[in-house]
Backbone:
């Protein structure tokens, strides 16, 4: 039980700190991320229910976080956070690029 403390100690605070960098990564690397989720917006929506697909996206995104964040947040914590907040964090992948920009 104690090993899960870091992931759940302050989920709102973690979400606030990760939202902007993760949104930037998702927008910047959309072309690389979409094939991991099936290639289309419809496939991406369905893939968000697939733990393996979401884990693959989280593992791809982790090294793209700012260095200071990677020092403070270990990869398994980040992956667990993305897994638990996948709908909100990866929503930009399930809409057309023009709609996401506007």
Residues:
């Amino acid at each position: 039980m104690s090993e899960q403390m870091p992931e759940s100690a302050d989920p709102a605070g973690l979400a606030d700190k990760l939202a902007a960098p993760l949104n930037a990564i998702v927008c910047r690397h959309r072309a690389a991320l979409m094939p991991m989720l099936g290639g289309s917006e419809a496939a991406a929506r369905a893939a968000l229910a697939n733990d393996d697909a979401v884990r693959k996206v989280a593992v791809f995104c982790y090294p793209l976080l700012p260095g200071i964040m990677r020092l403070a947040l270990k990869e398994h914590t980040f992956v667990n956070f993305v897994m638990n907040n996948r709908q909100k964090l990866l929503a930009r992948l399930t809409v057309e690029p023009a709609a996401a920009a506007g």
Notes: The chain has one domain: 12-91. DSSP finds nine helices and no strands in the chain.
